[in-house]
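Lab meeting, item 3. Inverse folding demo.
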């Protein structure tokens, strides 16, 4: 995981453990009286799947990183008073209890920080091409509740990967 940037947006996809405490500390600014941290963790079940033991996240990095940045830009347009914003997602194999996504928003007041953090996680999940494969008691399969990737900030949905010609 890279170190916190000098800029006010920290957008990253990594195989390393997510730095929840560092991201929260980084977002604290003298001008901001509110810091909201959302941490999504791997849980032990999914719809119709008891006994989940791990998730494996994959991302279409060429599209995912720019889309994360677009989510941050869109949040800043809606809440121009935001201080710092972190959108961090992990890929690779994760065990139950491990953080898979972190959103941190700081603002002068709590309402903006809460609203921006919620907007960011909801928009990230709807617009960034990241998928999860679940391993549970009865097997392995792609996560339930998948939906098509939506647009964010003027970016079209990612193109389908082209198949290489055989031979």
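The presenter then showed the designed sequence:
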């Amino acid at each position: 995981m890279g170190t916190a940037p000098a800029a006010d947006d920290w957008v990253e996809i990594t195989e390393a453990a997510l730095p929840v405490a560092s991201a929260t500390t980084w977002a604290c600014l003298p001008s901001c009286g509110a810091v909201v941290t959302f941490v999504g963790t791997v849980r032990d079940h999914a719809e119709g799947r008891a006994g989940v033991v791990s998730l494996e996240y994959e991302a279409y990095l060429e599209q995912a990183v720019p889309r994360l940045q677009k989510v941050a830009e869109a949040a800043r347009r809606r809440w121009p008073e935001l201080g710092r914003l972190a959108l961090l997602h992990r890929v690779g194999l994760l065990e139950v209890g491990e953080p898979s996504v972190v959103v941190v928003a700081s603002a002068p007041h709590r309402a903006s920080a809460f609203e921006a953090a919620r907007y960011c996680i909801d928009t990230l999940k709807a617009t960034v091409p990241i998928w999860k494969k679940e391993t549970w008691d009865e097997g392995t399969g792609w996560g339930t509740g998948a939906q098509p990737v939506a647009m964010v900030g003027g970016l079209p949905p990612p193109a389908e990967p082209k198949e290489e010609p055989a031979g």
